[in-house]
Structure formats: C-alpha cells, structure tokens
Amino acid sequence: MWLLSVSPRADIMVKPFVPQLVYIEPRALEYPLGVKLQNKFKDMGVEIRETTSHNQVRNLPGDNDFQKYRTAKSTLVVGVRKTLKFDTSKPSAEYAIPFATGCMGHCHYCYLQTTMGSKPYIRTYVNTDEIFEAAEQYMQERAPEETRFEASCTSDIVGIDHLTHTLKHAIEYFGRSKHGQLRFVTKFAHVDHLLDADHQGRTRFRFSINDDYVIKYFEPGTSRLKDRIEAAVKVAEAGYPLGFIVAPIYLHEGWQSGYPEMLEHLEAALPAHAKKNLTFELIQHRFTKPAKRVIQKNYPMTKLELDENKRKYKWGRYGIGKYVYQNEEQEEIKDVIGSTIYKMFPQARIEYFT
C-alpha cells in the first residue's frame, strides 16, 4: 500500500530523499540516464508509473488538496527538458541552467509554491548533454567574458543529486570549460558524492542558512543548521569556492541575536582558507498577494507573518509587486547582519542585499 509521508521535523536529522512514487516519460527512456534511473528505482522497490509528459502528471494519491500537495513533494518525475532557452538569473548569475524543477523541502515561505502552482512535484531532466550544448552556445556568445550559470533557480538540486548525479556531471563539465562557471545553493547536507568531483575551482558551492527560529518553524524537511555547516566544511576542504545565502532574513522576536549567533557558529567551524574567498548574499523575507494565498492553503497552521499593513510595497518585474520590510527595518538588517559579517569575515564580500 502506498503511504503518504509526513514532513520531517526541522530539529531532527533529515535523511537523503527517496521518492515514494516515480513517474517516467517514455521519451526519457531514449536517454542513458533515463534507463539508469528506471533500473535504480526498480531495484529500490519504488512504485513507477508512466506519464505522457512531465507537465501532465495527474491522479496523485490523496483525498484532498492538502494530502495531494504532500504526495507531490515526495514524487519524482523523470523527463526530458524540451525548452533549452535559458532564463536570465540576476543578480546571482547570467543564466539559469535547468537540470531539475521542484523541491522536497517544505519551506513555508518558498516562492516555488506560487511559480509551480498545481505541479509541485519534483522533476529531473535526463537530456543533460543537450542542456550542456545549449550552455556552450551561451558561453560562446559572451566569450571571452565569463558566463555564470545558476543551477538552483527552480529547485534544490543537491536534494536529489545523490540519486541522479546530474549536478556532479555538471560540475565536471564546467570544470573543463574555458568561460563557464556554475553556481547553486542548497539547504541539504548530503554532499559526500560531490566532494571528489573535478571542479577546477569553477563551481561556487553555496548553502542557504538561517537562524534556529526560522529553520525550526519555517523549513521542515531540510537539514539542520549544524548539518549544513558541517557539510560546508567538507565542501571547503574539497577546494570548492564557498558561499552562503542568508535567506529569507525574517524579523522574528530575537532576530538581532539569532543571526549573529548563526554567524558565530559558522565562523568557528570554517577552516581559515575558506574565509578568504567567501561570498554572502542577503535576501529579506518578502511575499506577494498570490503567494500569501498559496502559503496559507498549503500550510494553514504556519506562524509566518504575512501582514501587508506591516510591510512596504515594492514594484517588481512584470508589474507584480511584493511586500518587503519597511526602509528603517531594512537598514537595521544591513546594520546587524552586514556589520557582523564584516567583523567575523573581513575577507569575505557581500554580493548584494535585496
């Protein structure tokens, strides 16, 4: 019998993701990785179904939307990426490179809830050589300038890569490139299989970190801060350029001490050489009206503060506005967190605050 899993608590160690249900597009079996994944999941005893398209997965188990959403977050779809035109990915990179879509985490605030709409299941794409060929064209257009590719705009690819190894192959592909760099960010600590990748220093491995309050209440199903920091130390020892995204910066009671404590733990753990070429990206919590509706539907008991009256309205791209913190609150964020970073990591750089 197929059972619906409950999201893991945020204060216990999260095991590597294993899907409870797998869908495979017939076309995916025309690629070696598609066949390899089919055999892997058969050997693991995971239920496998067929779907005509990774965009057309229907009849997920569950008696209501609440159950079906949780089913989707533990479902993996193996498909072929048909659109090979890459979106821009400012400010973190020039382009987003699409290896996967969706995430098994249950972060209450995540924008993927809105962008993925009725398709919150996880997708992995097996036509990786075609994706690399498209990336090569983008690099040639910009050469001799470096072109950065962001691999985690629509997914936390580290969360599934122990199964697919797509990210590992990408790291080694960009390690061989002349003008390409890879970037990605994760909330997961399952990095051991990536430590021996031949990255040649051309991949920046970033971790999303937050203080204990945010991880406990808003990031169920992801690795604990302690585990993320331990994974970051492994990554640093493997010679990767390292980075941290502090996001979303959320103004809860005690945040002025919570974030400096988080940075103290990080500073104490990182080896000295990793602090010399370190980057930070700071992103304040924000939400849109459509996101608020989706969040309250998917996580009706959330403690997340979503009061428009407490926020400043900021116009975004495509005419869609978002609610961010007031100007004075933003200045306090930069003062508290920014000054702590400069004090503890004087050789690091803050790439942006938004």
Automatic annotation (TrEMBL):
Pfam families in the record: SPL
GO molecular function: 4 iron, 4 sulfur cluster binding; DNA binding; DNA photolyase activity; metal ion binding; S-adenosyl-L-methionine binding
GO biological processes: DNA repair; sporulation resulting in formation of a cellular spore
Source superkingdom: Bacteria
Key words of the record: 4Fe-4S, DNA damage, DNA repair, DNA-binding, Iron, Iron-sulfur, Lyase, Metal-binding, S-adenosyl-L-methionine, Sporulation
EC primary class: lyase
SUPFAM superfamilies: Radical SAM enzymes
EC assignment: 4.1.99.14
InterPro entries: rSAM (IPR007197), rSAM_sf (IPR058240), SPL (IPR049539), SPL_Bacilli (IPR034560), SPL_firmicutes (IPR023897)
Catalytic activity: (5R)-5,6-dihydro-5-(thymidin-7-yl)thymidine in DNA = a thymidine dimer in DNA
Gene Ontology CC: endospore-forming forespore
Cofactor(s) of this protein: S-adenosyl-L-methionine; [4Fe-4S] cluster
NCBIfam families, per database record: photo_TT_lyase (TIGR04070)
Role summary: Involved in repair of UV radiation-induced DNA damage during spore germination. Can repair thymine dimer 5-thyminyl-5,6-dihydrothymine (known as spore photoproduct (SP)) by in situ monomerization of SP to two thymines.
Family statement drawn from the similarity comment of this UniProt entry: Belongs to the radical SAM superfamily. SPL family.
Subunit structure: Monomer or homodimer.
Listed name of the protein: Spore photoproduct lyase
